[in-house]
Automatic annotation (TrEMBL):
It is found in: Cytoplasm. This is Proline--tRNA ligase. InterPro entries: aa-tRNA-synt_IIb, aa-tRNA-synth_II, aa-tRNA-synth_II/BPL/LPL, Anticodon-bd, Anticodon-bd_dom_sf, Pro-tRNA-ligase_IIa, Pro-tRNA-synth_IIa_bac-type, Pro-tRNA-Synthase_IIa_type1. Consists of three domains: the N-terminal catalytic domain, the editing domain and the C-terminal anticodon-binding domain. One of its GO terms (cellular component) is cytosol. The keyword Protein biosynthesis applies. It comes from Fructilactobacillus florum 8D. One of its GO terms (biological process) is prolyl-tRNA aminoacylation.
């Protein structure tokens, strides 16, 4: 293919406003162009890369007996209202109406749509298991699109959905898809990690992410330095090591802390470690007030908390509203249905310090009566010392509600935890009956009874793979594409297109290589050699063939873009040279 006939608007300078390396290079190399904030056109080179990625995906998914189809991008809002996600998804959901005032959305994902489809077409376990997939544009109204294709409002995605009559069949498909995803990312040439993931708004149980380590990544990968443990920060945990204290438990005593604004202030006033302070935060969890207790040095992991309650919505309760729940005209007025949970690290505390308002909430929720605890007085500006959870509230509910820290012991007890940044490129979920139950998608089982169909979901961010690969493999001169997804296999550059010998030989080489099954880009532009070399490095095709002064001797130069290695070869031996070099790229 002739370069003069392709739209490749390269740029010498970094585009204004582009922060990430991949954003800068994909724009500079003429692969993408912004149409509006968060919306990009995939120009011919990018489109060719996407086509190769899609081919790899199709080949590997077809091997699992998954079949491709296509769902509409405009979805009746009724489906999402049934599942509860229409309200829960938030402002990122593109909402619209047709001329008849009917609500629709632009699909950010298609669980509800495909569930409605299966509900209408599959009624018996005999037609299961089934796995269908599509590669399609998705839409999310990002508040602040950034980093080019990494966080955009319109993006290309593979989403696959499996349906089964038993957990065993779901497990089998889940394992097959995990293996297929591994093969896909291996073939693409991506450096990635398989990590424990958070299901988030998708719901479901087991979840695994595929994350590509990169400095610009918005996810944090937590991994052990001595085992295979790896997880998204939102799901990462550590080994609970509540060291046994030999201190004598003290009685509860109230102390004034009116001038203390935070945990550090209280610890300084009472001359104790922040680990001895119990931090308390009040959340609204699907309309239920929940008080969370954890050590003062720790941070609440809201994803774990939301998953613990299997909630659609979670947010910190408003401070003024919270005070109103605790105090009315100086006297306590606590709702009886407030829930209290504590992190596992609170369980082993001896002689801890806790705020008096939190103590009042716990006493009220547990129906306890403790010496020296008076619920009729104003608790604001006071703390209790001598708080021993196992003694004072033996029925307190515990769980893992904390963020892990670097240096914590890995949960498998092998090694310590480290953090690195990563780009989420794939995610697989066991959805179970989350959607089939809410949308009433049932089948007849082998005993003739109705049961909800059991679902799995599997996604790959197709367009963001362009950015992920670029972040990992580019250099100061431009893009470096793995051969499996490069827009072309070979780039042919005659130094002087006006030279008849160079021009004729370049066209002959191009034709011969194309006849051998390679995809070739011929730079037939009337540009200076420096411009051609710079553009070739920027575009990043794996192999470059340069025709210069030695064409009279039928000798050309072959350059490997990834390593910069060059070798001269005779034209009649060119194909063999390329075959040998291609094994290492």
């Amino acid at each position: 293919m002739r370069q003069s006939k392709i739209l490749i608007p390269t740029q010498k300078q970094d585009p204004a406003g582009a922060e990430a390396l991949s954003h800068k290079l994909l724009l500079r190399a003429g692969f993408i162009r912004q149409i509006s904030a968060g919306n990009y056109a995939y120009l011919p080179l990018a489109y060719r890369v996407l086509a190769r990625i899609k081919t790899i995906i199709r080949e590997e998914l077809d091997r699992t007996d998954a079949t491709e189809m296509l769902l509409p991008t405009m979805i009746p809002a009724e489906f999402w209202k049934k599942s509860g996600r229409y309200a829960a998804y938030g402002p990122e959901l593109f909402r619209l109406k047709n001329r008849h005032d009917t609500d629709f959305i632009l699909g950010p994902t298609h669980e509800e749509t495909v569930t409605e489809l299966i509900k209408a077409t599959v009624s018996s376990y005999k037609k299961l298991p089934l796995n269908i997939y599509q590669i399609q544009s998705k839409y999310r109204d990002e508040d602040r699109p950034r980093y080019g294709l990494l966080r955009s409002r319109e993006f290309m995605m593979l989403d696959s959905y499996s349906f089964a009559a038993s957990d065993e069949d779901l497990d089998q498909t889940y394992r097959a898809m995990r293996q297929a995803f591994t093969k896909i990312f291996d073939r693409i040439g991506l450096d990635y990690q398989s990590i424990i993931g958070d299901s988030g708004s998708m719901g479901g149980s087991d979840s695994m992410e595929f994350s590509a380590p990169a400095a610009v990544g918005e996810d944090t990968i937590v991994y052990s330095d001595n085992s295979e443990y790896a997880a998204n920060l939102e799901m990462a945990t550590n080994l609970v090591m509540n060291k046994k204290s030999h201190a004598e438990p003290q009685s509860l005593q109230v102390v004034a802390t009116a001038n203390c604004k935070n945990v550090a202030d209280v610890a300084a006033l009472l001359e104790v470690s922040t680990d001895q302070i119990i931090k308390s935060l009040l959340y609204d969890v699907d309309g239920q007030l929940v008080l969370v207790l954890l050590r003062g040095s720790q941070t609440v992991n809201e994803n774990k908390l939301q998953n613990f309650f299997n909630a659609d919505r979670l947010q910190l309760a408003d401070a003024i509203e919270t005070k109103g729940q605790v105090l009315q005209d100086g006297t306590l007025a606590l709702p009886s249905k407030m829930v209290v949970v504590a992190d596992e690290y609170v369980h082993g505390m001896v002689n801890g310090v806790i705020g008096a308002p939190a103590m009042a909430v716990i006493v009220n929720s547990q129906g306890a009566k403790l010496p020296n605890v008076d619920l009729t007085t104003d608790p604001i500006g006071k703390h209790y010392t001598g708080f021993n959870p196992s003694r004072d509230f033996p029925d307190l509910q515990y769980g893992d509600f904390r963020m892990v820290n670097e240096g914590d012991i890995s949960p498998d007890g092998s090694g310590v935890l480290h953090f690195t940044k990563g780009i989420e490129v794939g995610h697989i979920f066991k959805l179970g009956t989350r959607y089939s139950t809410s949308l009433d998608a049932t089948i007849l089982d082998e005993n003739g009874r109705q049961q909800p169909v059991i679902m799995g979901c599997y996604g790959i961010g197709v367009s963001r793979l362009l950015s992920a690969v670029t972040e990992q493999q580019a250099d100061e001169n431009g893009l470096i594409w793995p051969r499996s997804i490069a827009p072309f296999d070979v780039h042919v550059l005659p130094i002087n297109i006006k030279d008849e010998k160079q021009r004729t030989l370049a066209e002959q080489i191009t034709t011969n290589l194309e006849n051998d099954g390679l995809e070739v880009l011929l730079d037939d532009r009337k540009e200076r050699a420096g411009v051609k070399f710079a553009d070739a490095d920027l575009i990043g095709i794996p192999i470059r063939i340069t025709l210069g002064k030695k064409v009279a001797e039928d000798i050309v130069e072959v350059k490997i873009r990834k390593t910069g290695e060059t070798i001269e070869t005779r034209v009649d031996d060119l194909k063999n040279t390329i075959d040998i070099l291609a094994k290492n790229i």
